[in-house]
Amino acid sequence: MSRMVWVSALATVLIVGAVMALFSAPAPPLRSEHSRPAAHAPERMVAIVEGGKLFHDPACTYLHGKAKMVTASEAIRLGYTPCPRCMKPALAR
Fold first, then answer.
1. What is the number of structural domains in the chain?
2. Are the C-beta atoms of residues 39 and 93 closer than 8 Å to each other?
3. Which helix H or strand E contains 5, and what residues bound it?
4. What are the pLDDT tens digits along the chain (93 aa)?
5. Measured between alpha carbons, how far is residue 76 from residues 6, 27, 31, 51, 55 in Å?
C-alpha cells in the first residue's frame, strides 16, 4: 500500500510538472535586443519584411521592402516587435 501511494504521488508530480512546463513556454527571442516586446497582439493583419525587426500597419511610411502580411500573433511568434510609430497601441502597458 505504501509503495502504491508513493508511485501515485510521483506520477502526479510528473504530470503537474509537464503541464506547467507546457503552459509556461518562454517568450520568443526578439529580432533586436533594443526592441520593446508587444504588450498585446492586435487582432488584425500586420506587415513584416524579411530581415526586418518590426511589424507594421500596412500603410506605415516606415515600412520598406517587400511586405508579407501575417497576423500580429504570428509576427510576435516569429520574434518581430511592434513599430513604435504605427503600432503604439500594441506597446501600451
1. 1
2. yes
3. helix 2-23
4. 587 777 777 777 777 666 665 556 566 676 766 567 777 788 899 999 999 999 999 999 999 999 999 999 999 999 999 999 999 888 876
5. 43, 9, 10, 14, 8
pLDDT on residue 61: 94
Whether 40 contacts 15, CB under 8 Å: no
Q: How far apart are CA 81 and CA 90, in angstroms?
A: 9
DSSP for residue 83: -
pTM of the full structure = 0.64
Range of the domain at 86: 2-91
CB burial of 31-42 (b: ≥16 within 10 Å; e: otherwise) equals eeeebeebeebb
Distance, in Å, from the CA atom of 20 to the CA atom of 39, rounded to the nearest integer, reads 22
The single residue listed with the C-alpha cell 504530470 is 15
Residues 6+ apart with CB under 8 A from 32: 53, 81
